[in-house]
Amino acid sequence: FSSFCSPMASEETAAATKRPLDGSLCFVAKKSTGGSADFTVPSNGTVSDLSATIAQHEGCQAAQITLICKGSVLSQAMESLQTVHEKGGGGEKVLVVYIVRKPAAPAAAPATSAPTTVNGVVASSAAGGVGAPAA
To answer: Are 26 and 94 in contact (CB under 8 A)?
Structure first.
């Protein structure tokens, strides 16, 4: 995918199709925390493809990107960007907002528990059983 929207070839083409000559689609992606960038994707691309392109730009995993267009979350990864572009107005550039979620925290390691002692006596022990003297 090309990272940024390319200029139109001519004013006549721009007026007639409002799209780049190669048939690709241009999206203006605005980050929820500010800033924006233009992305050009093939017209046969999917929401997943746009997420991957934005993720590469952001330096994160595509799964961390949530896309929103016209107030709707684009949750169907295989949805055609052609459909999204049309729903978004079909102009030269269609606005999408994206959120970059933080990566998931690594799973906590299972806790290892030491035997519990009460008054010098092990309360529970696999080896000695309940009431075995503490070592």
So the answer is: yes
